[in-house]
């Protein structure tokens, strides 16, 4: 027999790091290796089913799809085999020697930092195969890609120490057979009861039958026993599925170790026929803010698996929703391009958005504690909604949570419904302020008039807030108003402190003229204000111009920002203003006015273009 040549390859450096973590037992729950290998086998069978729609010959006269598990106690081996799509030589090198997914380094960093969460991360990142080395001294894989000839099989072998071998072999059947040579201390995984227990725990709802090889002592023969239910859970009647089964299926579907917060299971018949099973997790995926974050639903067409991460059915602001869609109306040979241009996709998307938002609405009304867990984890993602989905803006707005002056906590737990129900009777608008932090918003001088009049103001300090408020125009007939912008409605509930011309002395009128002359075109206008009680002056944006926070967003994104010209408002009742009013030396007066402007700029923007000049001016005036 002709001996095949063995080729030796080096693992990618990230794989070496990952294997080092695996082999040195940083995972407490080692049984998950079996969950991962069975999941990979199931995916290989799903892929074969899908590819066989257009190429039936890939079945090679064997469409009895299954996963088989057997043990050999004498040799201390555990074998997991499937008759799925299999791998070519190129596939074996790419899939088993490298991690193609971007963000690998970030993942490895997460692994090293979160020692208590490693079992969650391994499945979430999709590097489950490497978990084999937690329990094995050596792993060998015999595989052949469906539709190729028997002599195109591949043997892949490694002890997980930096290198792996690839050899051409003869393999009569398509699919993949993984043999684990177990470490001495891991021989519990040779026990039939232990394997059955793990399959029952993690893989019961895999739609492929999983068989375990048993030995009949009486007849001295081996036989195969099915050890999972192999029923598509989503196709069953809701009333026959327990909460525990829903939770177990979620964990199988997502590799999440935690239970979901809530789920929604729907069978729809009529114009469209589909089944959806949507879940909301407790925790965000580690890469939810990555640009290439994989999200979306697992798509089935007439019970046949088609693809993972079908993002076409949910908008980006709902990317935390996990689950599946099984449609009777889409073509079996559907591709991403077909999905994007298919009318059925648009109808399904509309329906699934509604179901997702209704699920959130339900939990927000029925379980405030659970909704707060959701908001703390995914609130920032949901805040993208008003800009992305104008059609559902009312329900999204109702789901948003804020903090405010009266809330007196940085936790965002107030709904707009609550804000409106507690509104001052003279109040016409929903007032808010945006700032870089909760403390900056809470201590802004813009709030003084509102505190005095017992009017609540929403305190917005997330980076996305300013952008979101461009799309949130009104809620239940009440318009939103930024309090750092010019607004005449404030005067209506502040009549008693309104500054009347006859109350302003001649000296103050002259003072105002001198300030205007001193500042020239540095500001848009200078005027007296009744907004302030404790602060000498404040800057306002013109009602038609960009706010400070929006300018910061543009600047952070590398976009050019037009020069902001503020309205400089002065509190004529403030002692400092009254003292400056008495200064006759023009140079000294100008220095004080520039200091006041810098103070107001610092309060408004959080920084100055030239802080050293401000400090020098302040020190000079203090010395005098």
From TrEMBL:
<dbReference type="Pfam" id="PF00183">
    <property type="entry name" value="HSP90"/>
</dbReference>
<dbReference type="InterPro" id="IPR020575">
    <property type="entry name" value="Hsp90_N"/>
</dbReference>
<feature type="binding site">
    <location>
        <begin position="102"/>
        <end position="103"/>
    </location>
    <ligand>
        <name>ATP</name>
    </ligand>
</feature>
<comment type="similarity">
    <text>Belongs to the heat shock protein 90 family.</text>
</comment>
<feature type="region of interest" description="A; substrate-binding">
    <location>
        <begin position="1"/>
        <end position="336"/>
    </location>
</feature>
<dbReference type="GO" id="GO:0051082">
    <property type="term" value="F:unfolded protein binding"/>
</dbReference>
<feature type="binding site">
    <location>
        <position position="176"/>
    </location>
    <ligand>
        <name>ATP</name>
    </ligand>
</feature>
<dbReference type="GO" id="GO:0016887">
    <property type="term" value="F:ATP hydrolysis activity"/>
</dbReference>
<keyword id="KW-0963">Cytoplasm</keyword>
<keyword id="KW-0346">Stress response</keyword>
<feature type="domain" description="Histidine kinase/HSP90-like ATPase">
    <location>
        <begin position="29"/>
        <end position="186"/>
    </location>
</feature>
<feature type="binding site">
    <location>
        <position position="336"/>
    </location>
    <ligand>
        <name>ATP</name>
    </ligand>
</feature>
<dbReference type="InterPro" id="IPR001404">
    <property type="entry name" value="Hsp90_fam"/>
</dbReference>
<comment type="subunit">
    <text>Homodimer.</text>
</comment>
<keyword id="KW-0067">ATP-binding</keyword>
<feature type="binding site">
    <location>
        <position position="101"/>
    </location>
    <ligand>
        <name>ATP</name>
    </ligand>
</feature>
<feature type="binding site">
    <location>
        <position position="82"/>
    </location>
    <ligand>
        <name>ATP</name>
    </ligand>
</feature>
<dbReference type="GO" id="GO:0005737">
    <property type="term" value="C:cytoplasm"/>
</dbReference>
<protein>
    <recommendedName>
        <fullName>Chaperone protein HtpG</fullName>
    </recommendedName>
</protein>
<feature type="binding site">
    <location>
        <position position="36"/>
    </location>
    <ligand>
        <name>ATP</name>
    </ligand>
</feature>
<comment type="function">
    <text>Molecular chaperone. Has ATPase activity.</text>
</comment>
<feature type="region of interest" description="C">
    <location>
        <begin position="553"/>
        <end position="624"/>
    </location>
</feature>
<dbReference type="InterPro" id="IPR036890">
    <property type="entry name" value="HATPase_C_sf"/>
</dbReference>
<keyword id="KW-0143">Chaperone</keyword>
<feature type="binding site">
    <location>
        <position position="87"/>
    </location>
    <ligand>
        <name>ATP</name>
    </ligand>
</feature>
<feature type="region of interest" description="B">
    <location>
        <begin position="337"/>
        <end position="552"/>
    </location>
</feature>
<dbReference type="Pfam" id="PF13589">
    <property type="entry name" value="HATPase_c_3"/>
</dbReference>
<dbReference type="GO" id="GO:0140662">
    <property type="term" value="F:ATP-dependent protein folding chaperone"/>
</dbReference>
<keyword id="KW-0547">Nucleotide-binding</keyword>
<dbReference type="InterPro" id="IPR020568">
    <property type="entry name" value="Ribosomal_Su5_D2-typ_SF"/>
</dbReference>
<dbReference type="InterPro" id="IPR037196">
    <property type="entry name" value="HSP90_C"/>
</dbReference>
<feature type="binding site">
    <location>
        <position position="95"/>
    </location>
    <ligand>
        <name>ATP</name>
    </ligand>
</feature>
<feature type="binding site">
    <location>
        <position position="40"/>
    </location>
    <ligand>
        <name>ATP</name>
    </ligand>
</feature>
<dbReference type="InterPro" id="IPR003594">
    <property type="entry name" value="HATPase_dom"/>
</dbReference>
<dbReference type="InterPro" id="IPR019805">
    <property type="entry name" value="Heat_shock_protein_90_CS"/>
</dbReference>
<dbReference type="GO" id="GO:0005524">
    <property type="term" value="F:ATP binding"/>
</dbReference>
């Amino acid at each position: 027999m002709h001996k095949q040549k063995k080729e030796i390859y080096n693992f990618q450096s990230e794989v070496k790091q990952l294997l080092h973590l695996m082999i040195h037992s940083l995972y407490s729950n080692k049984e998950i290796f079996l969950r991962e290998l069975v999941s990979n086998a199931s995916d290989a069978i799903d892929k074969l089913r899908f590819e066989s729609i257009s190429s039936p010959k890939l079945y090679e006269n064997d469409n009895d799809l299954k996963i088989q598990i057997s043990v050999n106690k004498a040799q201390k081996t555990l074998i997991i085999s499937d008759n799925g799509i299999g791998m070519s030589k190129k596939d074996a090198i790419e899939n088993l020697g490298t991690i193609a997914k971007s963000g690998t380094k970030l993942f490895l960093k997460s692994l090293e930092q979160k020692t208590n969460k490693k079992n969650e991360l391994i499945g979430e990142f999709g590097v489950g195969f490497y978990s084999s080395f937690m329990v094995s001294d050596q792993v060998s894989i015999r595989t052949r890609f469906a539709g190729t000839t028997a002599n195109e099989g591949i043997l892949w072998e490694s002890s997980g120490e930096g290198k792996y071998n690839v050899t051409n072999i003869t393999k009569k059947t398509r699919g993949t057979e993984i043999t684990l040579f177990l470490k001495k201390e891991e021989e519990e995984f040779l026990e039939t009861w232990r394997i059955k227990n793990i399959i029952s725990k993690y893989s019961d709802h895999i739609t492929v039958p999983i068989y375990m090889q048993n030995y009949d002592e009486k007849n001295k023969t081996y036989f195969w026993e099915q050890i999972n239910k192999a029923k598509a859970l989503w196709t069953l009647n809701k009333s026959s599925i327990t909460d525990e089964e829903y939770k177990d299926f979620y964990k199988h579907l997502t590799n999440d170790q935690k239970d979901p917060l809530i789920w929604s299971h729907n069978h729809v018949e009529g114009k469209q026929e589909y089944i959806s099973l949507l879940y909301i997790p407790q925790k965000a995926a580690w890469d939810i803010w990555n640009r290439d974050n994989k999200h979306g639903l697992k798509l089935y067409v007439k019970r046949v698996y088609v693809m993972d991460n079908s993002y076409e059915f949910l908008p980006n602001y709902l990317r935390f929703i996990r689950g599946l869609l099984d449609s009777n109306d889409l073509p079996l040979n559907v591709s991403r391009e077909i999905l994007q241009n298919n009318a059925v996709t648009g109808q399904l998307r509309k329906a699934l958005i509604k179901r997702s938002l209704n699920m959130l609405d339900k939990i927000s009304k029925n379980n405030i504690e659970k909704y707060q867990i959701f908001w703390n984890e995914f609130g920032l993602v949901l805040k993208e909604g008003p800009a992305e989905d104008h059609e559902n803006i009312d329900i999204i707005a109702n789901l948003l949570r804020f903090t405010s002056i009266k809330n007196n906590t940085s936790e965002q737990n107030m709904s707009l419904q609550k804000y409106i129900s507690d509104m001052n009777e003279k109040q016409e608008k929903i007032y808010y302020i945006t700032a870089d932090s909760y403390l900056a918003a809470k201590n802004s001088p813009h709030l003084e008039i509102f505190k005095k009049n017992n009017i609540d103001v929403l305190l917005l300090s997330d980076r996305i807030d300013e952008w979101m408020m461009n799309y949130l125009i009104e809620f239940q007939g009440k318009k939103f108003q930024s309090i750092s912008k010019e607004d005449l409605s404030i005067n209506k509930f502040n009549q008693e402190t309104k500054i009347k011309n006859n109350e302003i002395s001649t000296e103050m009128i002259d003072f105002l003229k001198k300030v205007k002359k001193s500042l020239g075109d540095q500001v848009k206008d200078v005027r007296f204000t009744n907004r302030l009680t404790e602060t000498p002056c404040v800057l306002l944006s013109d009602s038609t111009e960009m706010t400070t926070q929006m300018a910061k967003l543009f600047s952070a994104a590398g976009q050019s920002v037009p020069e902001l010209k503020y309205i400089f408002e002065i509190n004529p009742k403030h002692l400092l203003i009254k003292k400056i009013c008495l200064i006759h030396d023009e140079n000294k007066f100008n220095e004080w006015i520039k200091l006041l402007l810098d103070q107001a700029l610092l309060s408004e923007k959080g920084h100055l273009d030239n802080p050293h000049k401000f400090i020098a001016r302040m020190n000079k005036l203090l010395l005098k």
